[in-house]
Amino acid sequence: VQLVESGGGLVQPGGSLRLSCVGSIFPFSSYAMSWYRQAPGKERELVASISGAGGRTDYGDSMKGRSTISRDNAKNTVYLQMNNLEPEDTAVYYCQALWQQLTYWGQGTQVTVSS
């Protein structure tokens, strides 16, 4: 089982990034997928989650209105589009897969927002 995130990097304030997470989990559509983030010295927090079929999404307060989660089950991929990024969004962003008692995490991708 593997979740691999990509798309992180350095971006200026006000910029955008799209993160991707590819999962070698089957059936991928059974798993609710989420993005979490963890900044240095802070607890890991939920950014967004999406149901298996993609019909339901939920957002944490930190990026509500500035982020959109989506998924493509044919590609075993979940995305996080982030807009109007702020320095406070600097963190490691993790992908999580959840189904019944099964929980998997990716290794994370670093997002740095700085001028």
Write up this protein.
- There is one protein chain.
- With 115 residues, the protein is mainly β.
- It is 0% helix and 52% strand.
- The strands form two sheets. Strands 2, 4, 5, 6, 9, 10 and 11 form a seven-stranded mixed β-sheet that branches.
- The protein starts with a strand and ends with a strand.
- The model has no long low-confidence stretch (mean pLDDT 96).
Please name the defining characteristics of this protein:
115 residues; 11 strands; mainly beta; globular; seven-stranded mixed sheet
Strand content: over 45%
Described by the principal axes of the CA atoms, the overall outline is globular
Helix content: under 10%
Distance between the termini: 37 Å
Average per-residue pLDDT, rounded, comes to 96
Order of SSEs:
EEEEEEEEEEE
Secondary structure tally, helices: 0
Largest sheet: 7 strands, mixed
Question: What structural class do helix, strand and pairing data support?
Answer: mainly beta
> Which spans have pLDDT < 50 for at least 5 consecutive residues?
none
Number of strands: 11
Radius of gyration: 13 Å
Summarize the structure.
This protein has strands spanning 3-6, 9-11, 17-23, 32-38, 45-50, 57-59, 67-72, 77-82, 91-99, 102-105, 109-113. It has 115 residues and is an all-beta fold. 30% of the residues are buried.
